[in-house]
Amino acid sequence: MKKPLHKHIGQGAKRVGRHFTKYLYERDTIFATVWVFIFIVGLSNIPLNLYVLNPLKMGLKDFDYTDLAYAELKKGKDSKIDSNIVIINIGHADRELLSMIIDKTAENNPKVMALDAVFYEPGDSQPDSLLSASIGKHKNLIAATKLILSGKDGDTISTSGDYFKNAATYGYVNFFSDELASLRYYDPFMKDYKGTTYNSFTSAIIQAYDPAAFKKIKKKEGKQVQINYERTVDKYQVIEYENLLTGSFERKAIEGKIALLGYINRDPSDILDKKFTPMNERFAGKSRPDMNGIVAHANIISMVLGKNYIKKVPSWVNLLISIVVCWLFMSFFIRYYLENHIWFHLVAKVIQVAAVLLFAYLGIFCFDEFNIKLDMKLSLIVIIMAVDVIYFYEAWAVWMHKKFHYHTIFKPHHH
Amino acid sequence: MKKLNFLIVLSVLGFAARAQNSSFLLYSFKGNVSVVENNIESKAKVGKTMNSAATIKVGPSSVVTLICNEAAMFTLTKAGTYKLNQFGDSCKVSSNSVSANYVKYVWAQMTKPSGSAGSNRKAYMNNVGAVTRGVNNIWIDPRLDTVNYSGGEFPLSWKSYADAKEFDFFLYNSSNIAEPFYSTTVTKLKISIPAFTSRMKPGETYYWVAAVKGEENDERKVLNYVTKETFNTILDSILKQGAQFEAPAEQAYRIAFMLEDAHYLSEAYQYYSKAATLDSGNALYRSTLMSFKKDYEIK
Which residues of A, range 8-47, sit inside 8 Å of B by Cβ? Predict the structure, then answer.
């Protein structure tokens, strides 16, 4: 009598399961797993940069698997326009024009206005007077400043870029990250050695717009926060300053909202104030920065107002996952090593490729579905190292057997 | 049965309500754009929200970008009057499954041939090391300016420097070369003249141009739609110029050559074909016909 299909599948699954579990509780499997981690710790503590001439390592230094979610898997494409924020494109407006833009924006009663421009030195007297008057007049205007960190520990803070000193509130616009790397994290607050806290540009905006959301972000003081990018420039209402000044816009587009006054340029060749972000369509290799700074600020504000933070899995959980993964795969590899050695390398390579695809998917899935950042890098490393460690372990176990009668399933020159 | 009917009515009403409830946000515009709501026309304003009962008027050389239901963005670039309820399809937001896209991506990457600049020169020769100065993305063979046409199958063709999939074709009256009286979008790099002859009058001069969809091209080319009588007069004069003992194939070839010289390209094609058919063993006739077809993108 023929067996039904589900029984075939069930038996097949059991057989594969046995491949993983046959040697699972063997002392050799556990010790080989331990050796994998000893090697990882040893290699990671070599005080030399062994990748100095490795272009692959250098090229992928800024790579994160979750970038694939944006670049290739269309994460964020379905995001709705954020109705809390309107961006006024200041283009290349000079100080006099900026003054007019601020005043015109203020006429339309935004709840908060924020000017994403820094001024390092005095300009012509008349435009400076006009801009200074505009900045001082509107108490809901947040001005940008740049923090300068000095001192041995970098905890002496001074400000620059705030030539106009009469704004009601300032927020710093620094992103403490490599200018040529993807902008993934930001510091919502900075504290100097005296304990004075400085609000970032976005934190200052949120404090004025939504005190409840501010309380939540305030709890993250002293930490770097990962930015949850969900929107490109097209997902924010942008009003060109020409339209603003000629009245070609609806008042309700600004009224009661956060009006971000910043520079927008959609021309990919114009990289003024553009940052690399995980939303870049080219996630590895040479590329062009993709997002204007003001849009990055807008994404931070959207994240905080929407309480859409990325939850990072603690390092000990990632370590625990990698130990379990290493143990399971070590058991599987040892089974092939001892019983089907002729197939060992082929199976190991196939499993390594499959594991890369699976773990990358798991990381992307958790990131997309639950905003959870699961770092599977260590799990991948242990699978890759496990294959080489088996050879070392075999030699070590046989030597231990000869010297100390260590009980092992490996036999001298068994293959 | 009653329950089924009730369900059908309910779902139809549901769909209708959804279509009716689409809201549109005027995201940006350039040029002359106005909005008609409740029979009142007003100038377009950025940030204006409209329901699907509204109408939007787009003037010549104007552009308007709308966002439907806060998510789906689309742009209107052609002059005209558009009722917003006709954009139901544009309101659909594709629900991107990251898992499905991941499988597609992995499969595409695994099966993608690894191309290199050396192995596929055609694909990698678009990297131009120079600036552009007002050169548009479309190149039209100067031989297609001017075309005299009296009838027959013949395409107007062009070449594109851009990796575009759609092209706009515009046809202008000689009295108004600013406003096309006929325009269409094509996916090929050519359009057959008979596709728009019904819109032209014999004896009139027209101008045409092709552009990458959404772009502009002001290099107008002339198309003379000549009457049959005019063409026959020219043909007669060409016929009279023949030698006394001219074979039919030779005559057809000569006529074709002279017609091509006179920019009667469609008619020249007919005579080149005739010459090659009448003397199929003649390599010159065959190769000339092949070259002619290649030059003018005749398939």
Answer: none
